[in-house]
Design brief:
The chain has 348 residues and is an alpha+beta fold. The chain folds into 3 domains: 99 residues, Winged helix-like DNA-binding domain superfamily/Winged helix DNA-binding domain (Arc Repressor Mutant, subunit A, Orthogonal Bundle), CATH 1.10.10.10; 141 residues, Endonuclease Chain A (Endonuclease, Chain A), CATH 3.30.870.10; 55 residues, Orthogonal Bundle (Arc Repressor Mutant, subunit A). Helix content is 55%, strand content 14%. The protein is built from 16 helices and 11 strands. The strands form 2 sheets. Strands 4-10-9-8-5-6-7-11 form an 8-stranded mixed beta sheet, sandwiched between helices. Strands 1-3-2 form a 3-stranded antiparallel beta sheet. It is rod-shaped.
């Protein structure tokens, strides 16, 4: 490799041209006294050496020597040379791997800092050029902070929570959300559209859905939901970035007031109008047993008889017997007629 190429590479790593010239000269001469190195650098006939110590720019000999001393001290501090001896001290080039690695890391850090400075400058420009900065409308939250962020947002809800709910979930559910119970007790309205897969999950249904419905949550069911999300007081939306088929959920979007938030709220309302009610209203006969009331609720969700039996913890035969009793109560001969009777009578 030519000296010119090597000098360019050394300068890219952070050495000045003079420091690179000194290091290359020491590689060519080997260990030498400072005066010898200085004379070699000043020798005429080499454009390379003239570029480093041009007397028309460096001044008198003493000034040049002082500059040389400073550059040598810098090279020694970087670990590229060492000065040996007690009398006539010699400058010796040393193995550069460690020093060059340090320079490489330092350059990388400087480039990253420069990159961030330019990015920040552009963001400042955007704040001045456009009052509605796009970046401030959507946040991306990832990792362990997801569940905590959702809890904090839900605790701040004042009037209503709108949710499209489906598997998977941010964390294993050991039971119903205590924050929802607290909010329902304080008058916050919860309207939730569940996917059929969520209702069919016996553990989730028994531990989370059923207790929340009993506490006052308004719940409906769709075969599938278009996106997992929750809208809080129509001022903030949390949207899951995971897909329904995955087993983990480690990232979400937080949408602030914008046309996108309005669209998400509209999506919920459309889903709510389309979904089947999962809870019974005041029109259901009070004489119905709790078991029959739960069967009616589950029939409205559209899950299979096998799933209903599993959710209720009964056998298919026992479920069939209860369905016969409900048909007798409604005066119907089939499930379809029972659904018509329930709708006309205002049970659901």
């Amino acid at each position: 490799m030519a000296d010119q190429d090597l000098r360019t590479h050394l300068c890219r790593l952070g050495l000045t041209r003079r420091q690179a010239e000194m290091y290359l000269t020491l590689l060519a001469l080997g260990p030498c006294a400072r005066d010898v190195l200085f004379r070699d650098l000043r020798r005429d006939g080499s454009d390379r050496k003239k570029a480093c110590l041009d007397e028309s720019r460096q001044g008198q000999y003493q000034d040049q020597m002082q500059c040389l001393e400073e550059e040598l001290a810098r090279l020694e501090k970087l670990g590229l040379i060492m000065v040996t001896g007690t009398g006539v001290r010699e400058c010796v080039p040393v193995e550069p791997a460690i020093a060059l690695e340090h320079l490489s890391h330092a350059r990388t850090a400087e480039l990253r800092a420069s990159h961030q400075a330019v990015v920040n400058a552009y963001r400042d420009y955007r704040r001045c050029a456009g009052p509605h900065e796009t970046e401030s409308l959507i946040e991306v939250v990832t990792g362990p902070s997801v569940a905590e962020r959702v809890r904090n947002i839900e605790q701040s809800a004042k009037s209503e929570v709108l949710r499209l709910d489906s598997l998977p979930y941010h964390a294993p559910h050991g039971g119903a959300d205590p924050i929802e119970f607290e909010k329902l007790g304080s008058g916050v309205e919860y309207r939730v559209v569940y996917s059929r897969s969520a209702v069919a999950n016996s553990a989730y249904y028994n531990r989370s859905i059923q207790p929340c419905v009993a506490a006052g949550e308004q719940a409906r069911v769709l075969p599938a939901i278009p996106v997992k999300m929750t809208v809080f007081d129509r001022r903030l939306a949390v949207v899951s970035m995971s897909v329904v088929e995955t087993d983990i959920n480690e990232s979400l979007l937080i949408v602030h007031p914008s046309s996108l938030l309005s669209a998400l709220t509209g999506l919920f309302e459309t889903s709510w109008r389309t979904a089947l009610p999962m809870h019974l209203n005041g029109g259901v006969p009070s004489a119905l047993t709790p078991m029959h009331r739960r069967i009616l609720e589950l029939l409205a969700t559209g899950v299979t008889d096998d799933t209903i039996a599993e959710l209720l913890g009964v056998s298919r035969r026992t479920l069939s017997r209860h369905l016969e009793q409900l048909n007798a109560r409604a005066g119907s001969l089939s499930r379809f007629q029972m659904a018509l009777h329930a709708a006309r009578s205002g049970w659901i």
